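Reproducibility note. Readers wishing to regenerate the assembly model reported in the main text can use the exact inputs given here. Chain order matters: entities are listed in the order in which they were concatenated for prediction.
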Amino acid sequence: MMKKVLAITMAITMTFGLMACGSTKTETAEPAAPAETTTEETTEAETTTEDAVAEVAAGADVNGDGKVIVGYISKNLTDPFHAPINEYAEKTLNQMKSDGVIDDWTGILDGETDPNKQIDRADECITKGCDAVIVLPAESEASDPAVTKLADAGINVIVVNSKTTSTDARAIAYCGSNDVEAGKMLGEWVVKNVPDGGKYIHCTGILGNSAQIDRGAGIAEVMSAHPEFEMVGEPDTQWSGDKAANATTDAIAQYGDELVAVICDNDDMSSAAQRAANDAGRSDIICVGVDGNQNPLQMIKDGDLGATVLQDGVGQIAAAINVITALINGEEYDSAPVIPFVLITKDNVDEYLQ
Amino acid sequence: MEKNTDGKNEYILQCEGISKAFGGTQALKDVQLYVKPGEVHALMGENGAGKSTLMKIVIGLHKQDKGEIIFEGQPYQVKGPVDAINAGIAMIHQELNPEPHLSIAESIFLKREDTVGKFFLNKKKQNERAGEILKQFDFPYGPKTLIKELTLAQVQMVEIIKAVSSDARMIIMDEPTSSLDSEETDHLFRVIRELKAKGVAIIYISHRMEEIFKICDTVSVFRDGMFITSAPLSEISRDELISKMVGRKVENVFPKVDCKIGDVVFKAENLSGKGFKDINFEVRAGEILGVSGLVGSGRSETMRAIFGLDPIDGGKMYLEGKEIKNKNPRAAINKGICMVNEDRKNYGLCLLRSLRENISLPNLPQKQKGLLINQRREMKECEEVAKQLTVKAASIEHDAFSLSGGNQQKVVIAKWIMANPKLLILDEPTRGVDVGAKSEIHSLMCQFAAKGMAVIMISSELPEIMGMSDRILIYHEGTINGEVTREEILSSSATEEVILAKAFGGK
Amino acid sequence: MTGKIKVKSMNNDNLKMFMGKYGIGLVLLLMMVVIGIMEPTFATSKNFMNVATQVAINGMISYGMCLAITTGGIDLAVGAQLALTSCVLGVTITNSGMNVWTACGVALMVATFFGFLNGFLIAKFNMFPFVVTLSTQLIIRGLSQVISGGKAISLTSEAFKGIYSNKFLGLPIPIVILIVISIIMYLLLHWTKFGRYIFAVGGNVNAAIASGVSEFWTKVGVYTVSGFLAGVAAIIFTAKTGSAQSNIGVGYETDAVAACVLGGTSFAGGIATVPGVLMGIFIIGFIYNGMNLIGVSSYYQSIVKGCVIIGAVLLDMVMNKRNR
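Running the prediction on these inputs yields the following structure tokens for the assembly.
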């Protein structure tokens, strides 16, 4: 009996141990020797160029523990838009760690699209002694305490992708795109491709998300200037492709040939909507959305989808990491870089398709 | 051991020097068992004597620590019940647990289905084969009937048919009659005799002395994990057998004491409900009222309704002269009516909770101090009542699960004694209880009566009901079909035959 | 010979009893030691304070869930209850300008009412708790979308946000709430009639009825308490995020069920202890916190969580084998 108990307890501990080992291995993927030289280099740097060290301490090492630690609170690990962002961050920050630019980072903390969890992760960044934290907020209002909490602890917060309420006041930088612009681009694409106008539906993201609100505003701005278009439905499709596809088939059944376009707040939804329309023999319906996920890009390449508006998430996170590098180097940085949206059609899809 | 020299082939099953320990408890110590083909071999002993453990070893549910089993002259070692059936030994369990949604045919051929190819069932062939077998046994239902439509006795018969059809040369029956009425029991005995004539050996486990003497040829007695004796039943008397089992001489089988009978405590007037109608009776303080009748004759149904478990459709009840209504058991308990249910497993105890919690469950309203339970007082009172009822447990904090059937029954009684009822109803209080605990429960009933409680006891065992009751009501098909008094029993003017005749509807 | 066996068995038995009772505590302790060795910042009072504050929300939900599971049921509506209570708070405080404490009272009443409704449907019509709460969950979430108009309502009242950020005797309020509710739950489950009835109904409902226990009121009571606790959780949640939204609390029942199971709550019903569940709550909290501090990649975290839960349940089954 006792043996069994022991075995299980051991198994649990080992799972823990293994996971931890696994993670350290990926972090120090470089051979052991360069890692050692890195530490030597940093000590060297500290002893030789005192001025530079002072600058680093002033700019990056805010808590004065002699280490620069970076935190990364993701929005989630599951959404296809966030996957390449997380991947880029992981690769770059690991590289920076092995190059000795930063001493450590938290790894990708899972925000689970839940402001409550994001606030908890902020607590952990503070405990871990982070000097700069990148936050990709789940909600504009509810995730805000994560930003303020970190800022209260004197940590440099860089907000990425969407703003929280006090981002302008408390974060040192916001790296994002203007979602109203994206909405306008969606509207313009539809206007351009359906010159005669007609009925369209607008599949929304989760109500209350800033991206949903701003993109919707952009779409409305363009479409209201074109009276030949009539919006016949605004289904609450919650960023979900599946729900958008259902909404599309329903609309086709209801309005038949009068339905000319499906405008979606993201392109998970627009690609699913287009697929549903194509399956219903209505490939003439223009479906368009924002993000530039791989699946819609592939559809554009295959000629199944007309266009999508790429939100350059990787560009956003790259800008955020640039801010951190600038902090460390004591350089000036842009506190609000705007990363432009890109309209992707068959002509330029190859550049973005991996 | 000398029997062994008579010739190896005389016995179908030989168990020698079997020992088995669970943790630190020695369940079996060097026991033996010899069974001849075509005999009905009784296994007797109090609960926990080791009979069930030995049988579980034989069908492969446990593995012995020491010892050897020889079946039909071959060393025998099986991995589980299915393996045992293939080897020729089947067991009919005390609590039958077949899948209720299977048909009779599916149940009979469970785990050895007729198949087409490897995976597909050949239902037609299976039903045909099952039909033939059922005909051989004069079974009144077809092979497609679902198990859940059968009575308990019929389900048991299906189990027996299943064992015989799988060519079992030995069938173990654990308390086969515990849920059968006398008619069904007679039918079972006829089947046992037929099997015996075919040379099938039967190991028969039962606490019912009458049955043992009626149907069995040989008896092996166990006590405290040890083999005590084995003898042909023709050579051993009932009293001898009991004293071998309990290890002491039981002077008086039923310790009935005559108490002073007082005023009427409870009176039922034209009571009707599901399964009974126009029931009239009264029971007095200090009286033990026996209720007899066949299973399903309405005796348990009446008592459940009085206790508030089932609804009453008509009639009136009076407690100490005042009319009462019991919407639910809580109402009955508050008025001083308590009932020990016949189905101990389902209605008796929360097996995974401690004895203390079980005993105090119906009595918690009296144990509160403000919002909270006065745990010290609760513990003290539970300990007292457990001691009074001689519950054998290491501590009242132990799970009820760990107790033997007899001790569990005492815990059920304990919780009602703590409620200090005016009327205590006991439905089959000694079913599945070993001989020692049985007589203890009987003495307790007398003590309660002596304290002025009115006691109603339902029992299917005629000797028990005749030995313990001041008066006996006999049910037949939902009505009371007669009444006999203790005087009539003592003067032998009311015999078992008289009571049985009334139970079957005679006058 | 027999004497020897007896002595040995006694020791074995005592050890088993001990492990059965405190096995989960050992797991918790072991976990803390392992994480503490791997990451020194883990073992700081500040971090423990953080974790205790973090687990308060799941703690409230888990206690309610524990009661439901103990009666042999489950409460899947807790996540939606969280959203509804949050939206009620938003509407009353921000939109109607109600006094913060009155608003909290109203919100708790709403949560308690829907808990009662769950219990009533389950007990009155003898429906499966899984089905009932699965359905009411949709209704409750829908209602929260209706009253909030699907939008986030921001709560700027400092008094309200103080429920999360203020301190009492040096402890953050969520920890104080966790302590108070833990004590109340302990007394409720182990020291009151109601608690005993919960165990009895879960352990053997027929025996409970035959002992004069009302199945109806016990079940109604259980889900009502669960609703109330979800309401308390929602107040902490909303004060923490400063925003009332209808989309919060999705999947929160998973962590609550996990904490209950880790704490030795039996899905067969009739077995649970409040200290056990509290330890389960902390194990779940430490899994997240510890792995993030060690730097375990988030991609592996749910795998580890799943393994720990299965491991702990196996452990529990091995410990309690003698009981089954």
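We highlight two features of this model. Residues 190 and 286 of chain A are 7 Å apart (CA to CA). Residues 2-27 of chain A form the longest helix (26 residues).
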